[in-house]
Amino acid sequence: MTNQTLLVLSGPNLNLLGERQPDVYGNETLADHLAVVEAAAADHGLEVEHLQSNHEGELVEAIHSARGRCAAIVINPGAFTHYAWAIHDALAAFDGPVVEVHLSNPASREPWRHTSVVAPVASGSIAGFGADGYRLAVQAAVALLGR
Ligand code: DQA
Asked: Strand, helix or coil at 107?
């Protein structure tokens, strides 16, 4: 039986989307992004499991629990992107496609955002397309899964 689950992970402060710096991150809430993800995933027979956490270890444990169980991971690690090596290592131990997504384009922002420790273990990264990024991330995961 093939895995039917797409794990979507949201890092710190993303629970505040809609209120947090809307000029940078848009007016959509995390629930709005998830609705888009769920619709796009359902079109390809994938169910979505989602975790938002402000704690690195919880995200690491969610990645562990995806091993052998989830088809792919879409992750917006928030600020963990830039320094959370434990998330890097956990993703390296996941067999399926990993799509890194950012609402903003970190490469065009402060220098400390220019490094992603997640990018080297992601299949690819989508950044700077605002809310469209989540739909594009699901499409990328679906394409990588050959669905
Ligand atoms: C972000 C970019 C990160 O640099 C930042 O810390 C976030 C959000 C984005 O989606 O643009 O929290 O991941």
From this structure: helix
**147 contacts 46 by C-beta, under 8 angstroms:** yes
| Residue 127 burial (CB count, 10 A) | 19
- CATH of residue 107's domain is 3.40.50.9100
Domain range for 113 is 5-145
Q: Summarize pLDDT for 45-78 with one digit per residue, the tens.
A: 999 999 999 999 999 999 999 999 999 999 999 9
77 in Cβ contact with 37 (< 8 Å): no
Residues with CB under 6 A from ligand 1: 13, 76, 78-79, 81, 102-104, 106, 113
> Do residues 66 and 97 lie in contact, with contact meaning Cβ atoms separated by under 8 Å?
no
Record the pTM.
Answer: 0.97
Contacts of 141 (CB under 8 A, 6+ apart): 6, 71, 72, 73, 74, 97, 99
Q: Ligand 1 centre and the CA of 2: distance in Å?
A: 32
Q: 10 Å Cβ neighbour count for 57?
A: 11
